[in-house]
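Design a sequence for this backbone.
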């Protein structure tokens, strides 16, 4: 008697895991409800990953789970209906505290912004944005003691020298700067932006006016202290995709201005050499999962130093420090803050870190 061999591959059906030779195993065909001895009968598999639609958690293969899509009004059977966050759909599932953002220190203090001394970067907001910076440290001041209305708020960096006015090296139009940020952000839906504002010199009403006039305030995410952080996708979809952290708490409660050192913490900053850098607590509450790894060194005169920046921002150096701090702290740095972002590769380091789920994962190749 000749054994039955439906697909004629000289494996009798009894021993053949795929009787009809259609690449779908008998077991899978049974699960998916198709005929295992009819090669014309194959399961529906929209994304071609050999998991039938019925059993595929991500049927359209756009990296967003079916349930997640349905709950948010996306079509789980359409790979063209999806959202990407920071360039990847899968990052939309990550919570805010489980992502690493490249951050520029004194982001506005650049020659492109008209600052000629005490600069922190060579290039301004547009280049920083296009390079992948998504967190910004900003210092609002009044233009002068004679121009101290809410319309007079500018960005400038106070040199740490006695008896010098804060805007000694020039000032930046804070309204224009933030409007540009808002418009760049509008063109990158799915991204989340964070601001760390050194607000000692301006009252809360003035800061709120600045943020409101520039379209930033209405997209501020209000974080309840101690509650879990939402996913990047949900922040984006709900239109609350900007975090506004302030370094000094106001007496009045401005609910959208989150006291930085209650909701986050940072490492020490402005050391004079790489050897002095640690993963220790500088300011804030180290129980918080959101934290800044400050990664800039100062010159002997207290200024940003491009030579030192090129050392500590170098790809391998910065990546190794971030991984060490990730291991030491127990969760990833949320922000990697640098001077002279153009020196070294802070944004490539964050790209690499974001491909990892744990510090002990294999480190992916240089982007
Ligand atoms: Ca089959
Ligand atoms: Ca599939
Ligand atoms: Ca999907
Ligand atoms: Ca979809």
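Sequence:
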């Amino acid at each position: 008697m000749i054994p039955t061999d439906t697909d004629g591959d000289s494996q009798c059906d009894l021993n053949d895991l795929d009787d009809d030779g259609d690449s779908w195993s008998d077991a899978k065909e049974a699960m998916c409800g198709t005929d295992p001895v009819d090669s014309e009968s194959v399961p529906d598999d929209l994304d071609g990953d050999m998991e039938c639609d019925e059993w595929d958690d991500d049927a359209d293969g756009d990296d967003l789970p079916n349930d997640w899509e349905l709950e948010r009004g996306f079509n789980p059977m359409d790979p063209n209906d999806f959202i990407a966050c920071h360039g990847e759909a899968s990052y939309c599932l990550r919570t805010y505290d489980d992502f690493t953002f490249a951050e520029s220190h004194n982001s506005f203090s650049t020659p492109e912004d008209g600052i000629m001394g005490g600069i922190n970067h060579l290039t301004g907001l547009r280049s920083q944005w296009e390079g992948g910076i998504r967190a910004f440290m900003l210092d609002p001041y009044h233009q002068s003691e004679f121009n101290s209305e809410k319309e007079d708020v500018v960005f400038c960096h106070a040199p740490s020298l006695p008896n010098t006015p804060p805007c000694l090296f020039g000032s930046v139009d804070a309204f224009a700067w933030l409007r540009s940020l808002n418009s760049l952000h509008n063109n990158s839906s799915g991204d989340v932006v964070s601001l760390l504002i050194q607000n000692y010199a301006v009252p809360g009403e003035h800061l709120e006016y600045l943020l409101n006039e520039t379209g930033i305030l209405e997209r501020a995410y209000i974080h309840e202290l101690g509650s879990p952080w939402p996913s990047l996708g949900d922040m984006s979809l709900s239109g609350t995709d900007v975090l506004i952290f302030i370094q000094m708490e106001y007496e009045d409660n401005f609910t959208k201005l989150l006291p930085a050192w209650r909701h986050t913490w940072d490492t020490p900053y402005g050391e004079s050499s790489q050897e002095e850098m640690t993963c220790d607590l500088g300011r804030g509450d180290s129980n918080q999962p959101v934290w800044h790894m400050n990664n800039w060194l100062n010159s002997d005169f207290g200024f940003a130093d491009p030579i030192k920046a090129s050392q500590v921002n170098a790809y391998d150096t910065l990546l190794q420090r971030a991984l060490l701090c990730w291991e030491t702290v127990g969760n990833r740095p949320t922000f990697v803050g640098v001077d002279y972002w153009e020196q070294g590769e802070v944004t490539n380091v964050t790209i690499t870190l974001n491909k990892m789920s744990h510090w002990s994962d294999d480190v992916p190749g240089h982007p």
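The radius of gyration is 26 Å.
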